[in-house]
Specification:
Blueprint: E1 3-8, E2 11-15, E3 20-24, E4 33-36, E5 39-43, E6 48-50, E7 59-79, E8 84-103
Antiparallel strand pairs: 1-2, 1-5, 3-8, 4-7, 5-6, 7-8
């Protein structure tokens, strides 16, 4: 089983070729290719690569998919007995990445 663990948008993602991940909005056009180099851990059939903090000999190619809005998050503030209530909503802008291949 071939997989890698990457760091993207302040989060860690377990990825395999052919899967999608959603990261914070990237200022790239849809269909463009990117090379991810922040690899924390990698594994192929015979080897294991552990980064300190990153692995330099492993690279991941990805294609930028569509840009979309994430799920709505409700922010509700209230102070009891003071008639203070504030309700706000927020939707994060996200970019979907299609993982093409891992290069070991």
């Amino acid at each position: 089983m071939e997989y890698v663990i990457i760091e993207a948008s302040g989060r860690q993602h377990w990825i395999e070729p052919g899967k999608f991940i959603d990261v914070n909005n990237l200022a790239l056009k849809s269909g463009s290719k990117i090379l991810i180099r922040r690899i924390l851990f990698g594994r192929n059939q015979e080897d294991i690569f552990i980064g300190k903090p990153y692995v330099s000999q492993v690279q991941v190619e990805a294609t930028v998919g569509n840009h979309f809005l994430g799920p709505k998050v409700i922010v509700y503030k209230m102070k009891p007995k003071k008639k203070y209530r504030r309700k706000n909503g927020h939707r994060q802008q996200l970019t979907r990445l299609m993982i093409e291949k891992n290069t070991f």
